[in-house]
Design goal:
4 copies of one chain form a homotetramer. By secondary structure, chain A is an alpha/beta fold. Chain A folds into 2 domains: 199 residues, 3-Layer(aba) Sandwich (Rossmann fold), CATH 3.40.50; 122 residues, N-(1-d-carboxylethyl)-l-norvaline Dehydrogenase, domain 2, CATH 1.10.1040. In chain A, 51% of the residues lie in helices and 12% in strands. Chain A contains 15 helices and 9 strands. In chain A, the strands form 2 sheets. A 6-stranded parallel beta sheet of chain A has the order 3-2-1-4-5-6, sandwiched between helices. Chain A has a 3-stranded mixed beta sheet with strand order 7-8-9. In chain A, helix 5 packs parallel to helix 7 and helix 10 packs across helix 14. The longest helix of chain A has 29 residues. Chain A is elongated and about 65 Å long. The N and C termini of chain A lie far apart (61 Å). At the A-B interface, strand 9, helix 10, helix 11, helix 12 and helix 13 of A face strand 9, helix 10, helix 11, helix 12 and helix 13 of B.
């Protein structure tokens, strides 16, 4: 593996040097060609709700795309502007930088290590970036398999939903070798406004999971506190104001308040439409739960929070924004 | 009761006029004496860890004190500068503005309605401000009893600990008739930098309880998320930074982080000494629990949070700052 | 008080001796008079769903009744056969053995210590038995007040619902001085098949509260385990059978299974009609919660269980049997 | 696969007929040889605390053993009486009935599908019984792989600890095709007194997981109820008696009471030594949690229970019996 990595390193430094020279010699033609056509193509696997606008932002920054999605219709936006491949393996044959954006750990395993997976035809020195939100231990396993092939894997899950994906201001939390972070940032910066280095491979996923667990907890906490206060006679707006200038302050209280009428422009102001679906929150908390179990970390509130969002999914809230937990806590007849 | 309120109203307006007249007759000497020494005395019952520095701040603002504490030694700081009385009733006989600062609902009931309580000798038109953290339904009951005597009750619990009490920058959350808020603020403003009107009587307590419940929840959430992230390989400082720029951000993560080494000047940096004791947090959550039960408000996370702090009290954490829940979650052998 | 208790003891021992003689000398007349008219009247306060059939069972055993209920219509079944009084005080004037059956702690406080309460006219040596389910600390307070009047108080809450009340096979859990247990059992045995001595005053309530907390927990546990097993492919009847011969066995699994189709003659077989309403379970868990807080006993599962039943009450399950938690856990669309 | 299954079916029916003939022709010699030597050898993989006594019980019933354990020393008890192989594959080469008893899902996957796993050399028609406690979805996956090789897989986890394994009175919960249950029972009946058919493959694991989840919940519930009752003044033995004749009754209260002094011969009577370790309970609840997540079944109490046992493991209780949760709830200073 050491040898493979050396080879890969050599390949990449050549490539890197090439790019740097390109940026160095400034003739008009060079500038044109760099911004128009000289960029080497980037592979993109997984063109769903999130992957689709992300890939388009890469294109806008001048990267030709080599794409694949398990559902052919997902590729139709790209038929004229990108090359649609028949498998992840074929993408890997044509592109040495690939981004994957997949719904679950199992999908990621299939796309990387399956019979037609990336690893079947990956080129040595390739940079593979997985932006899926998956179990960090799966990221680590994939990284090992990728390294065996002389390529490099980084995990880079995103924070921010479809809107942020379209606007190109996602946050990426990146795990992998620090010396390769700049190369990853070059691509990720085309799709997000914030690209944060988190540490060794898997820590990008870890950071996302920990953040979302805390988010899920403080949202329910905010909903419980607001509901209790209202029943004790407090005006919701005033209570929110008091919390926000006190030690109860949190993102769920000051930026995304779950009580209708307290803030504008948030899902609670729009019948909990849009935003971050309860089913996605439940999925992320499932990952937190699995990570907590495997690392033997007690998550008393995190575990209960997971179950509450599960209950909500079972009670018709799966498509609503997760702040609808406020509605879930209220009496049926009153709301 | 309407009649009683009318009487009380009449009494107060008479009294008020008296005070205003006093303020009206403007000789230079009078002005001097008003600002220096002519301020009418203020009663203060309960001179414990919090009450002691609060009372001293009132004195600094020129208010002569009429004081009582059930423990005589608590009054010794005031022997030369205030009048020490033998009972709350005696305080009420001498002062028509009284502040009470007591540990529990039962203490408050005793001090107001007990055989030697304030109500035995309260003057019509008196303003009684209770800064204790107690059950809002008790505040409402006390307010009713006080009104029967033609006086006025407001609840005004504080946020901020002994340090803030000394520095005079507590936050007061005030419940009671809005037209009397200015009168209360005149006194409370001597002891705090922030005096917030919350609504009808009991809403001051309600706001405090709701804030502290959310604080208790988000602190445990932060501790769980930080602990999980560390076990997944993240650097604690980096993880805190990521949470604080993301949707997991809360006061417990960005101002009072529970992980040793992440921030300076917080209890976690000082072996969880000082700060807000776990036993006090458990007490406030007990009040939240009782209020939730009586108003039939579900508090799934609030209830579990209450129990976790109770467990901590049973495990030797009662005197440590409540952020020591991070330590509680870690393995014995590692910490 | 010691003197008063002595007097009371003397009065009762006279009475007791009289009864024993009556039972000893067996002439036909004696038997008749014992069963027909010689029994001294018993007071009964609170003739609701439970109190009504309990009082009737006392009558069937030959006890003349002196009754009171705050709702006059509740007394109409007894108009011809018992004396309807205008207040608890009047009941106490006419009867030296009184049973109270009231919905809440506050009602009990009012009936005993209110302006027209039992204690206004209670006779020395009276035996007052409270079968309400209330806070054990309230029972202890009432016992103290009753003792001050030279009378005796015992707490004797019941297990078993309206059906058991009608059939006369309730279980009574009795707290109070052991030497008076026989006297209490004489009356309680007319209404229940099981009269258990639990210890000092308050322990009857304590036993009931602890039992119902454990019942509430194991019912939800059973519902969760059955639901999980069914989703994993197990037949519900077979799973119940396996649990019942294994270490998961509990009353909720083997006697009152919450899954429709597993057992006959239980609420789950009848759309969760009848049985023990969720709102009553939530009330009992509220008492458990308050007792746990005041004794600083951690109840992690008990606290969460309390909140789950509260949620159910808020979601339309308040009138259904508490085993409907199984239905609550299922997806809306499937059930 | 259909063809493979037909082949397997043919092979097995030949085998089965052989065995049945053996049992049919009753000469003295036949009986002798059947009970002494004619039994075909059985493979056994995994000779740890549980596997060791289980294998010995098979031997006592006359089955020659072909064994393997990853730790050679685990095989030394069997060196003279069984054949020790170098890998699971080698076991499969020599035995067409194999029992596996392994600690985790990962171990099971390795033993069956690894490079030297059973499936490398498994004979068509073989019967493979896995008594490990693992994720039911893993059992299903293994069953599919085994079927592809023309063999048969059943899951048969056990209830009962090392003592029951030695005494040969384990309970087996068996999942797999019903027509093969008799063949499995022939072997399992040598090691257990209770062999229960649960349904399709994976339902054995499901039944065990559901039972243990309910057990874990009701044990904590019992500990909380007993602790609360004791603090409210009840005698522990009396409280246990009351619970056991009431609706709070469960295996944890009547057979395995967690309070020292209530029962003899249980771990609580022996400083929580022996019994079922907290770490094993936490493991089983981790499986329940994973199954609940994958089937989207809410387990509010199950999830919290999981976390409580995790906390206990982190606090020095990992090797104690799981009923030590009672001790965990008590104050440090009192216990």
């Amino acid at each position: 593996m050491a040898a493979a990595l050396c080879l890969r390193g050599a390949a990449r430094s050549l490539l890197g040097r090439g790019r740097r020279q390109c940026a160095g010699r400034v003739s008009l033609a060079a500038v044109c060609s760099r911004s128009m056509a000289s960029k080497t193509p980037v592979g993109f696997v997984g063109l769903g709700n999130m992957g689709n606008p992300m890939a388009k932002n890469l294109m806008k920054h001048g990267y030709p795309l080599i794409i694949y999605d398990v559902f052919p219709e997902a590729c139709k936006d790209f038929q004229d502007v990108g090359q649609v491949m028949a498998s992840p393996a074929d993408v890997a044959e044509k592109a040495d930088r690939i981004i994957t954006m997949l719904p679950t750990s199992l999908n990621a395993i299939e796309v990387y290590t399956g019979p037609n997976g990336i690893l079947r035809k990956v080129k040595k020195g390739s940079l593979l970036i997985d932006s899926s939100t998956i179990d960090p231990s799966v990221s680590k396993e994939l990284a090992k398999e990728v390294e065996k092939m002389g390529a490099l894997f980084m995990d880079a899950p995103v924070s921010g939903g479809v809107g942020a994906a379209r606007a190109g201001n996602l946050t990426f939390m990146v795990g992998g070798p620090e010396q390769e972070f700049a190369a990853a940032k070059e691509l990720l910066g085309c799709m997000g406004s914030n690209v944060v280095y988190c540490g060794a491979v898997g820590t990008g996923e870890a950071a996302k999971i920990c953040n979302n667990m805390l988010l899920g907890i403080s949202m329910i906490g905010t909903a419980e506190a607001m509901n209790l206060g209202i029943r004790l006679g407090l005006d919701p707006k005033l209570l929110a104001k008091i919390l926000n200038m006190s030690s109860g302050r949190c993102w769920s209280s000051d930026t995304y308040n779950p009580v209708p009428g307290v803030m504008d422009g948030v899902p609670s102001a729009n019948n909990y439409q849009g935003g971050f679906g309860t089913t996605l929150m439940a999925k992320d908390l499932g990952l937190a739960q699995a990570s907590a179990t495997s690392t033997k970390s007690p998550i008393l509130l995190g575990g209960l929070t997971h179950q509450i969002y599960r209950m909500m999914c079972a009670k018709g809230y799966s498509q609503k924004d997760f702040s609808s937990v406020f509605q879930f806590l209220r009496e049926d007849e009153n709301f």
